[in-house]
Amino acid sequence: MSTALSVEKLGKNAGLIINESQGNAPPQPCAPMGVAPINMTQAMKSSTKVLMLTNMVGPDEVDDELEPEIREEMAKYGQVASVVIHKLEGVSDDVAVRIFVEFTNVAQAIKAFVVMNGRFFGGRSVAASFYSVDDFNNKEYGR
């Protein structure tokens, strides 16, 4: 870096770094990639012990090794009761595979949600959301 950066104060605890060569040009928005992460505040209002992950893999990436891999990864956040991988037909690739992870309690599912929502996995931005325990127990995975 050969020039100093300037900071434009936006609020009490917020600022914007400005590169002198760009002047005061507004920051360029990022292009959307894949599925947008779920809004954390809205999701927490409907939290359950069942987490649904989408855009983690495409339909052609589902194999016998996926379920144990998911179980191992999710065990970092709590005790996993079950993992179900469900494919939907006639939908876009980013939502065609739903991965359901049932934890033994809601707190563990929330911990996994916070880490997984928006995380990149194999070049994909994962979207996490909570799923109805009743629908999960009734094997209604397409809702």
UniProtKB/TrEMBL annotation:
It comes from the Eukaryota. GO terms for cellular component: nucleoplasm; precatalytic spliceosome. Keywords: mRNA processing, mRNA splicing, Nucleus, RNA-binding, Spliceosome. InterPro entries: Nucleotide-bd_a/b_plait_sf, RBD_domain_sf, RBM17, RRM_dom, RRM_euk-type. GO terms for biological process: alternative mRNA splicing, via spliceosome; mRNA cis splicing, via spliceosome. It is found in: Nucleus. Its main location: nucleus. Residues 49-133 form the RRM domain. Splice factor that binds to the single-stranded 3'AG at the exon/intron border and promotes its utilization in the second catalytic step. Involved in the regulation of alternative splicing and the utilization of cryptic splice sites. Associates with the spliceosome. Belongs to the RRM half pint family. This is Splicing factor 45. It comes from Teladorsagia circumcincta (Brown stomach worm).
